Structure formats: C-alpha cells, structure tokens
UniProtKB/TrEMBL annotation, chain A:
This is SNX4 protein. The keyword Transport applies. GO terms for biological process: positive regulation of autophagosome assembly; protein transport. It comes from Donacobius atricapilla. One of its GO terms (cellular component) is early endosome membrane. PROSITE patterns: PX (PS50195). Transmembrane segments: none annotated. Residues 12-140 form the PX domain. It comes from the Eukaryota. The keyword Transport applies. One of its GO terms (molecular function) is phosphatidylinositol-3-phosphate binding. Belongs to the sorting nexin family. Keywords: Protein transport, Transport.
Automatic annotation (TrEMBL), chain B:
This is Sorting nexin-30. It comes from Donacobius atricapilla. It comes from the Eukaryota. It holds the Pfam family PX. GO terms for cellular component: early endosome; phagophore assembly site. The lineage of its organism: Eukaryota, Metazoa, Chordata, Craniata, Vertebrata. Keywords: Protein transport, Transport.
Amino acid sequence: MEDCLAKKMEITVSEAEKRTGRNAMNIQETYTAYLIETRAVESQSEGQCGPVESLWRRYSEFELLRNYLSVTYPHIVVPPLPEKRADFVWHKLSADNMDPDFVERRRIGLENFLLRVASHPILCQDKIFYAFLMQEGGWKEMVNETGFQLKADSRLKALNATFRVKNPDKRFTELKHYSDELQSVISHLLRVRARVADRLYGVYKVHGNYGRVFSEWSAIEKEMGDGLQSAGHHMDVYAASIDDILEEEEHYADQLKEYLFYAEALRAVCRKHELMQYDLEMAAQDLTSKKQQCEELATGTVRTFSLKGMTSKLFGQETPEQREAKIKVLEEQIQEGEEQLKSKNLEGRDFVKSAWADIERFKEQKNHDLKEALISYAVMQISMCKKGIQVWTNAKECFSKM
Amino acid sequence: AASAPKPLPSSGPKSLREMPHPLATSSSEEMGPALTPSPDLLLPRSIADKDLSLPNGTPVDTSSPASSSSLLNRLQLDDDLDVETRDLFVTVDDPKKHVCTMETYITYRVTTKTTRAEFDLPEYSVRRRYQDFDWLRNKLEESQPTHLIPPLPEKFVVKGVVDRFSEEFVETRRKALDKFLKRITDHPVLSFNEHFSIFLTAKDLNAYKKQGMALLSKMGESVKYVTGGYKLRSRPLEFATIGDYLDTFSLKLGTIDRIAQRIIKEQLEYLVELREYGPVYSTWGGLEVELSEPLEGVSACIGNCCTALEELSEDMTEDFLPVLREYILYAESMKNVLKKRDQVQAEYEAKLEAVALKREDRPKVPTDVEKCQDRVECFNADLKADMERWQNNKRQDFRQLLMGMADKNIQYYEKVCVT
C-alpha cells in the first residue's frame, strides 16, 4: 500500500482559456491553455488544507510529460491522454478543437489523466511529474535535460523486433493479441454508437414537428383546442430533451475512449518486452557464435564455412601467435558477453515481473472502471426512458381532456 | 297512388305532389321491410320523405320551415334514447380468400343481430366483398345525399408493392370495413336505409344490384342532384366557416400523417443501427473474462429494445395511420356534402327569384328546396359533433398505444442486468 500523490494532494484542471501566442516557428497561433490547481491535503487533520497553487499548461506540454513517462517507465501501462482531435463524432457534434463542448470534455480528460498518474504507486513519485504540477517556468528544459528522448526506442527497431523475436513470454503475446482485439472492438462500438446517437436524434427532433402542427390545429378546434395545444407543448419538450441525453452519453463515450487508448499503452509494454527479448536473443546468439569461433580457433577445426577460414586456407594459416591473440580477444569478448547476457537476462526477468505486476493492477482497474461505466450507461438509458414515459403520460393526459 | 313503380323513398327532393304519401301505401310490404312504418320507429325514419307525418297518420303542413325544424328537434332528442336502446349490431370478420377462374378476391363475413321489426330474422350472416361495400356506399350517397356517409378504406393501394392478400393488409381493411358498418348502424337515419338492410340480409346481393339498376332505368329519374347551372352567390357564414374548418382540418391531418410516416422511417433507421450495436457488446464480452457477463447483458437488452421498437412502429402503421387517413376521407365527403348544399341553396334562390318575377304563388317548390337546406344544416351539425367525439376517443387510443410501447421499452431497459 504505497502512499501515492493523489492521497496527499488535490489536483484539478479547473479552467480552460483561449490564448494566442507565437509558436516555435514564430507564427501566430491560437491554442487553449488549461489551469491546473493543486492543494496539499493533510490526511489526519480534516479541514486543514494548504494554499491553492496553480499554473497553466497547454496540451502539447501534457504530451511531452506523457512521452517522458512512457520512455522512462516502459514496464508501466501509462495512462493515455484524451484525444488530440475529436473523433467518432456524430453529426451534431462539431469536430472543431475550439468548440467549447470539446474543450470542456478535454479539460475533464486531462484532469482524469493527472489523477490517474497521481494515483499510480510508481508514477506518482516521479520528480518531473511533480514539477509539471508545481513549477511553471523552466519545466520544459528540465524534461529535456533528462535526455529521455535518447532512451526512446526507434519505431523501426521495435517493429523489427516484433517480427524477429523467437521466444517471447507467452503471456505478452496473448496480451498483445487481446489489446489488438480490444482496440478493434471498442472503435467499432464507438462508431456504431455515434450512428445510433445520430438516428435517435432524428427520431426525437421530428416529434417536434408534432408540436407545431398541434398548435396550428388547435387554433381551429373548439373543445379539442386546449388539449391539443398542451399536448403539442409536451411534444416540444420531448424533442428538446434529446440534447441533454446525448450530451450525457458523450461522457460514456469518453470513458470507452480512454480504454481504447489504454490498449495502445498495453501494446507499448508488450513491444518493449519483445524488444528486450529480441535483444537478449541477439546477445545470446552473438555469444554462442563467438564461443564457437573461439573453439574453432583453439582446436583448429572449421565447423562452419567462414571467409576467414577460406582466406587462411588460400593465403596461408595464421601464426600461432596471431591465433593466440585472437583467442584472447574472443575470450575477453565472451567474458563481457556472458556478463552482459546475465545482466540482460536479469533485466528481462525484472521487466517481466514488474510489467506483469502493473498489468495485473491495470486489469483490475479496467474491470472496475468499465463495469461502472456500463452501469452508469444503463442508468442513463433508464432515466431517458423514464423521461419518455413522463412526457407521453403528460401528452396522454392532455389528449384525454380533449 | 300505389300503382306507379315505387320510387325509392329516400330519393332526392321531388315535388310534394309527386311523392306518394308513405302511410297511404300501407300495402307497403312490397316496398321492402325498411319501409314499414311502425309507431315506435316513426321518428328515426328518414325524413328525406317529403311528407312528415304524425304517428296517427295525419299529414302535417310542411309548408313552413318552422314546423319541419321542430320535428327535427324532436328527432335529435330521440337520438339519445336511440343510443341506449341499441337494437342493431353488426360485425365484420372472418376474411377468406376465394380463387376463381377470372379473379382472386377476399370476402368477409358480415354478421347482424337485431330486434328490429323490419328484419324478418333476429340474426343474419352473409359474405361480402369490398365491391359490395363500395356499392352500398354509393347507394347510400345517392339515396341520402344530405347525409354524411362514413368513408371506406381506399380501394386501391397506391404505395409500393403492397400485397393485397397479406395478413396485415387484410386485417387493416377488415377493421376499416367493420368500422364503416358500425358507423352506419349508429346513424339514426342511415341505419334504416333500405339498401343497408338488403346488404345485411340478402343471400344474393348481385341479383338485387341488378334489380336496382333496372328500377332506375325504368323510372328514368335522376336521383342525384343535377341541378346544373345554379351558381351560389354566397355561402352563408356558418357553412363557410365549416368549409374553412374542413380545409384546414384536412391540411393539418395530412401534415400529421406525413410527420408520423417520417417518424416511423427514422425509427426504422434507428433500429438498423441498433441492431448492429447490440452484437458488438457481445463480441467484446467474448474477449473479456470478468466483464463478459455485464457486456452480454447489455447486448441482450439492446436486442430487446430492438424488438420493442419494431412493435411500436408496426402498431403505428397499422392502427394510427389508417385512422388519420380515414378522417381525411371523411373531411372530403363532408366538403362534398357542403357543395351539394350550396347547389340546393342556389336552386332555391334561383327559384325564389323566378317566383318573385313571375309573381306566381308557387310556394311549394322553393319550400321543398328550403327543407332540404334545413335538413343539411341540422345533420351537418350533428355529424360534426359526432366527429369530435370520435376523434377524442381515437386520440386516446393512439396515445395509449404509444405510451404502452414506451412502457415496454422501459421494462426491457430495466432488465439490464449489470451489477
């Protein structure tokens, strides 16, 4: 039960503001800045809180933080950021990054990200993270000084490893497979959900036309007039209610999206494992071949065809002294190699152990979160239906009085 | 007076002199059961008869509109009594397909139960096809031109490839035909129409149809109001109001019809997406361990919602839309009646002018026409009141329907077994 930052500190992303400034290329641009507020909380004494500290950050700084964390803690499933651009939109929502609803949902997403990092037993202790929350000026430089970019594995290297690795841990292979499927199914779900939302919107809005017609019709009726008019009003209410309903549903979609992006984080950990495993396999292979070479030189037998062997046959064998020197070099290299292999093995095992621990933690978190998300979705649906019942009951009453 | 071929008693307005006194022809068994006057049932008799008589047979001086109105008032009072002492019940059911060499068609069973004296038997059961209903309606329009005849379901189905023999189509039609006959049954005047009784009772309707045609041609009378050439100068305000109302009314109903259709269309499109949505949760459930149960649950619920929505759309199509259309047809009929009324008034005014010019004392012709106008007035109002009442109830039914469906939707949602 490690004590994590989240317990000691309140963190919120409370505001979003449009700013204009000059970017790296000295071009004027508009961006949104987010206000991060933190306040130290004394766990024992209630009501005694520290002063509120705050600073402004923009999305690109969040991205920098996350990149740093991913590289520095490759065995951790690092929480994802909310999407950069609005995706899976249905027609009414705009895909504009400056749209206030989008900005608002992003604000919530960023806050969620910070809370997730702060509640992670390992990540919360990172100094750069702490500085991100507390130190406005000079933070970027601080991050760059860590030189994390150099530690980052190249995409190409990772891809290569994925294809060539021979003996990865089966659990990771399964996990990678799972995260692929998860990504595919959630994106499918989000796409269909967007279409469903679109259609439902249409159904509700057309009912609004009833409101107008009933109103016009009531004008020519005597006894039926009042009933029609009030029923029409209820139809208008019904048509308007869909806006709020779908707004709420966006929150559910966001929760799903978080796990869609988490799938990517899972894959990153798997890739790291594959890379390390591949590295290990390569190092082992290298060692084996060096040992073989050594043996060949020592015993003079050529087991495998080698250019050196051929040339020595053609141009004369080496002198015993040369051979001795070579053997010595190889033996040193073998020594080094064995040490390296040992440490790599250790590294690999450590990685697997800690990564798997975090993955288990992640699994529990995921199950818990998604269960809650599904429950709240169901609750939303029920409330939507109850509203529907209410409206139609009211309409029915109006009709009965006609 | 009984020597001439019996004109149909409810034919158009004719000169008083030409009309035989109905009670004088008490050997009226020849005229058919509907014509036998009986003291109890005098008042509901069609007052298309030119001669209004008191139960004891004394002809009443009907030269002044006032007296006819008072009789009309009495008639309206008795309307209420009539409702409580229903003596005629008609049902349409049991559709059957008939395949013949020339054609294939559907017949419906028409069952009648009655205690009315005009009917020989207390119960009848005959089979009729749509053509027969159409014939009945035309006959009613001809013989009771001043009354509003309930509409029939449409003869031809215009939209798309609708199967004339599909269960839904046949059932919708049956319901509409049933309503048609019930409305006639409820009508104080129409229900005593001769053609109606024949329709309900005759074993071979076609024979009667032919006979009817023959009679007409023998008499050589034009039953309809072909008072051509009379143009109405101005419609009296109250009828103009009704006319305007009907115009707006049909317009609004038409709009509602379109909206309802649009809603159904949107709902169906929503349904399509929903049908894809549910299974994705299932797929996801297959991936997961702990979450598989709740995910499956969501998937199942969405499936249930689909079913409920489907039912809702079906009900709307089958029950709501046909009634809307029926009322639009009704409004059309009413407008036609109004036009006829106009014609009558035009004729009256023209004849009045002619009289004034000629300075002749011929009060009876215009009176005749005027009486017709009175008739139209009263029945128009009566029927309109009827329509309002009907509409009330219809609306209640619709909303109950939609409500019920919304309820079902909710029930299914509540079954979401996410714990």
